[in-house]
């Protein structure tokens, strides 16, 4: 007898019975909590205390595409002095920002993995504005794939950008943020940086510095997440994974399997519409602005996206930590199909 399975089934029955009991016997409390939540959501925005923009200086990393690109334009239009860090100062994204001809938008060559470029950015900000109110630490990089396929240097490359690069930016610019008692705003969902953000928020409280983390839901249809450039780069990485695979891995998975993620990205790419992308990401930009000017910003902003009625990924994020693993694993496996046999996934 599989005692673990029996235990999980009994737990599921107990939780179902308990939930039904609560709904029947305590429906008044549940309805009251629901009304309270709806009322709070309606009233809270009307009583926010917002700081004046007053040409406050903000540094944004990763402005070539996506959230960083759009928020740089939004903040510059709102009256902030924006220092937009780009990976390629002569690239398509940088040229698009230049074409906007916004007087208070300054482009900076900024690879967050290069200490020389970080120091040059620090010098430029100090020379141009003399101070810094906020950081939107947006730069990110990803190489999706199964653990068995993704190469070690791929992991190291992601870590250099997504964790070490974020830490380097924080350490370089935090003295300016601390002096101005500004707000440091993180637009990432990585667990390592989430821990860093929590620690930094507690450490900076004594200086009057606010730290918030913004966690976007499904916005792959509206950012550079699946651009032609990113898809081309991903194809290269998947090719590397397949060629580096052992004969046993190739026999077990088959050649189609590692390319499933690449095909998924091509699907995102086909949904992307450059003309209206900026309008799709308005909820994320609103959260960023709120984190920068709200006197009492939230520690976390989970911003649902998607193209349907419900962003299922944001829904998972809300409730995942409260679910037993056997329930959350089942839901995720049904959503992703990861439990299905390889032959079924690649057919």
From TrEMBL:
Q: Which SUPFAM superfamilies match?
A: NAD(P)-binding Rossmann-fold domains
Print the keywords alphabetically: Membrane, Oxidoreductase, Transmembrane, Transmembrane helix
BP terms from Gene Ontology: steroid metabolic process
Signal peptide stretch? none
Which Pfam families does this entry report, sorted A to Z? Answer: adh_short
Q: For this protein, what is the EC number?
A: 1.1.1.30
Gene Ontology molecular function? 3-hydroxybutyrate dehydrogenase activity
Record-given protein name: E1.1.1.30
């Amino acid at each position: 007898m599989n005692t673990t399975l029996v235990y999980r089934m009994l737990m599921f029955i107990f939780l179902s019975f308990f939930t039904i009991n609560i709904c029947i016997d305590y429906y008044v409390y549940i309805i009251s909590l629901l009304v309270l939540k709806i009322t709070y959501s309606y009233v809270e925005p009307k009583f926010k205390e917002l700081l004046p923009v007053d040409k406050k200086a903000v540094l944004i990393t990763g402005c070539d595409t996506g959230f960083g690109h759009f928020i740089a334009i939004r903040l510059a239009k709102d009256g902030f002095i924006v220092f937009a860090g780009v990976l390629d100062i002569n690239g398509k994204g940088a040229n698009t920002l230049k074409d906007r001809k916004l007087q208070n938008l300054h482009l900076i060559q900024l690879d967050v993995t290069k200490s020389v470029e970080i120091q040059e950015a620090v010098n430029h900000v100090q020379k141009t504005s003399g101070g810094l109110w906020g950081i939107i630490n947006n730069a990110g990089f990803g190489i999706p794939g199964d653990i068995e396929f993704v190469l070690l240097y791929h992991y190291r490359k992601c870590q250099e950008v997504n964790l070490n690069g974020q830490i380097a930016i924080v350490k370089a610019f935090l003295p300016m943020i601390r002096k101005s008692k500004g707000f440091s705003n993180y637009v990432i969902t990585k667990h390592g940086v989430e821990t860093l953000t929590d620690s930094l928020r507690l450490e900076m409280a004594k200086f009057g510095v606010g730290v918030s983390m913004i966690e976007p839901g499904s916005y792959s249809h509206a950012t550079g997440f699946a651009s032609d450039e990113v898809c081309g780069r991903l194809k290269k990485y998947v090719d590397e994974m397949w060629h580096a695979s052992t004969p046993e891995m190739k026999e077990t998975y088959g050649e189609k399997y590692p390319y499933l993620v690449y095909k998924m990205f091509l699907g995102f790419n086909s949904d992307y519409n450059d003309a209206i992308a900026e309008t799709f990401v308005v909820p994320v930009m609103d959260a960023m602005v709120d984190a920068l000017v709200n006197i009492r910003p939230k520690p976390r902003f989970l911003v649902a996206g998607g193209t349907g009625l419900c962003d299922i990924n944001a829904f998972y994020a809300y409730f995942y930590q409260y679910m037993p693993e056997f329930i959350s694993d089942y839901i995720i496996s049904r959503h992703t199909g990861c439990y299905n046999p390889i032959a079924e996934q690649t057919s």
